[in-house]
Design brief:
The protein is an alpha+beta fold. The protein is about 50% helix and about 15% strand. Strand 8 and strand 9 form a beta hairpin. The longest helix is centred in the N-terminal third of the chain and has 16 residues. It starts with a helix and ends in a 10-residue tail after the last strand.
């Protein structure tokens, strides 16, 4: 069985199968026990654990060492069997472990001793261990123990006798299993499973119906390692609720069988046409192995089913990539219009696994579904669909209903899809449809729309989106001048603050910072000439990233940004500013704000001030920003709004 494939399937259908984690854990534990190397890394630890006083730890060690047939443990385990101060149950488990590791036809003397012991626990241990001795030498002991006065000893001996004698044990098994106490049904079931003939399996079916200890029954069938028990386990699975913990144990037991055996039995189960049978078979196919031929059987059987749970289970099974979902594409498409939202969502997920399905064509109406969860599922599926399938230049029209949906979650998901699959051809239609959101007061919506538009904007489109939100988008920048950690130079008045001349150059100095230090010992600042240059914001959130615009380095630096704009009239508006690490701002030559963020090493240090009331004059106005950076990011941002927090386009 392909364990990795199983795990991937569980990942895909985990929302529909919450018990999957438990099931896969059980399966993996079984496989690890079966395939673990003889000289496992835990061997030494378990050998030492045999000396523990705690009987649970000792039992755990015995199980591990016997499963892995660790020869080095034989002597110590034999000592435990002979230790009369030890618990009888531990001594019995030690004997079983010894016989399993020994792996030959010799009957250990201690086994004969246990078989005649007055302690029934030791006799039961002998009954179990005799069945682990190679060959049939233990048969005589087991026949004797099958007549023991203690019933558990009898039936334990019967199970071991069936193990070594096979169908030759049927006469004895037939006689002893005619009437079985409930607590002994698991041992009787093990005997019947080991016999495996028609009569034995029929009686086994009868016992599975009457038992109350299902967990013990499953363990007994598991111990038999008989492929003939697969139909019995499937029948038991069909009668067990998926919420019942025993459901997981049955799946785990089934996992020990070859796919060929499972496939044959599952086919027979599906063909019964029972909803419960189809449901159980679908779960096994989903969790354990994928066979497209069984998918055809499921579809055929589903025609007579009306149970939603059965339909869901079948869709989950058919939707996995290993079940060739493309062959069932029409089946999934049909259920996009199902009355239940859960079925619609499953159809979407299944179609997303179809390599030949154009989801943009198939989900055109589904994406507008009145049920929000269906719409979200469709949008998420389109996020994973090939971008080349998206309607180029028409994506905005395709998404129109969800882009203006009143549900914030749906609308945000639609914006993300637009940004993911859209391109420059979609920008202008999107701006025309969503532009009003950029000038609105809903911050969450504005930012989501801006991000989506920015991801599909042409070269000059980002500044346009920023400007629509009231951000200053066009600047003249100058830098850098040398600063320090204490912002001493930032406090000084530098030449650009006295007079701005865009044609002028300025002498400046800089140093290369090393690990947060301002300069190396003895290092002198380097001189250079700097001048003004045009710059624009390259983010829809209005950030002017200073570092890429200015000559390096950006550490321990000061720079200036200037923006000139016209106002049609004298008016009062509001200015919001932020930046990393510090800023001073002048409006028409008057300083209106100064903020310095506390220094944090290699972290963002954001200074901000919002809603500064400003007075604009009719005609030309100028904003000058002095920005300082020590290290890490370096940016400034300015936004102008009216009294209602609506953006004002002035730039």
């Amino acid at each position: 069985m392909n364990q990795l494939s199983t795990f991937k399937i569980l990942q895909k259908i985990s929302p529909a199968l919450p018990q999957a984690v438990m099931i896969i854990s059980l399966i993996f534990l079984q496989f690890s026990a079966l395939s673990a190397p003889i000289k496992s890394s835990g061997t030494i630890g378990y050998l030492q654990q045999l000396n523990e006083e705690d009987w649970i730890l000792k039992a755990e060690a015995l199980h591990y060492l016997s499963e892995n047939k660790v020869q080095e443990a034989l002597e110590k385990i034999l000592e435990i069997t002979k230790d009369e101060d030890e618990r009888p149950w531990i001594r019995s488990k030690a004997l079983a472990a010894y016989c399993k590791i020994q792996n030959n036809q010799d009957i250990p003397q201690i086994l004969s001793t246990f078989a005649s012991s007055p302690d029934h626990v030791l006799r039961e241990g002998a009954a179990e261990s005799a069945g682990l001795v190679q060959g049939k030498r233990g048969a005589e002991i087991l026949l004797k123990l099958s007549t023991d006065k203690i019933k558990p000893v009898q039936f334990r001996a019967l199970a071991s006798y069936s193990r070594i004698m096979g169908e030759d044990a049927w006469p004895l098994v037939q006689k002893m299993t005619e009437s079985v106490p409930d607590e002994l049904i698991p041992l009787a079931a093990e005997s019947l499973a080991l016999i495996g003939n028609k009569d034995a399996l029929e009686r086994l079916d009868q016992l599975t119906v009457s038992t109350t200890n299902v967990r013990a029954l499953i363990e007994s069938l598991d111990r038999s390692r008989s492929p003939k028990t697969v139909p019995v386990l499937l029948d038991l699975l069909e009668k067990t609720s998926a919420d019942d913990a025993n459901f997981d144990y049955i799946i785990s037991s089934l996992s020990r069988n070859d796919n060929e055996v499972l496939s044959s039995s599952l086919r027979d189960l599906i063909r019964t046409g029972r909803d419960s049978a189809i449901f159980a078979a679908s779960r096994v196919i989903t969790i354990l192995f994928q066979d497209p031929d069984l998918g055809k059987e499921l579809l055929s059987a589903l025609k007579d089913s009306s149970e939603p749970e059965t339909l869901e289970a079948v869709m989950i099974a058919l939707g996995s990539k290993e079940m060739n979902p493309d062959s069932n594409k029409n089946f999934f498409i049909t259920h996009l219009k199902h009355e239940m939202p859960e079925i619609k969502i499953l159809s979407i997920r299944c179609l997303s696994h179809c390599t030949e399905a154009n989801l943009y064509n198939l989900l055109k109406e589904t994406i507008k579904d009145s049920e929000g969860s269906v719409s979200i599922a469709a949008i998420n599926a389109l996020m994973e669909a090939p971008i080349e399938d998206a309607p180029t230049g028409a994506l905005v029209s395709y998404l129109e209903d969800v882009l203006v949906n009143t549900d914030d979650v749906i609308r945000k998901a639609a914006f993300e899809l637009l940004g993911h699959a859209g391109n420059a051809d979609d920008f202008e239609p999107a701006l025309a449809m969503l532009g009003e959101a950029l000038s609105g007061t809903d911050t969450v919506r504005r930012e989501a729309v801006a991000e989506a538009l920015g991801s599909i904007a042409p070269e000059n489109g980002v500044a346009n989106v920023a400007r629509r939100q009231g951000y200053i988008s066009n600047w003249m920048v100058l830098g850098t001048f040398l600063n320090d950690k204490e912002h001493k130079a930032f406090a000084n008045e530098l030449e650009p603050e006295k007079n701005i001349d865009f044609e002028k150059t300025y002498p400046s100095t800089y140093v290369w910072a090393l690990q947060g230090n301002q300069r190396r010992d003895g290092e002198k600042p380097i001189e250079r000439e700097i001048g003004w240059s045009e710059a624009g914001v390259n983010k829809t959130n209005g950030m002017l990233m200073m570092g890429p615009l200015l000559p390096p380095p950006g550490t321990f630096s000061i720079a200036y940004a200037v923006s000139d704009f016209n106002s049609e009239k004298d008016q009062e508006l509001f200015l919001s500013l932020d930046g990393d690490d510090a800023f001073k701002v002048w409006l028409n030559g008057e300083k209106i704000s100064e903020q310095i963020a506390p220094y944090l090493h290699r972290q963002s240090c954001v200074a901000s001030q919002g809603n500064i009331k400003i007075k604009l004059k009719k005609g030309k106005n100028r904003i000058l920003v002095k920005s300082a950076n020590i290290e890490h990011e370096w940016w400034v941002r300015a936004r102008i709004t009216d009294a209602d927090n609506r953006p004002v386009e002035l730039f």
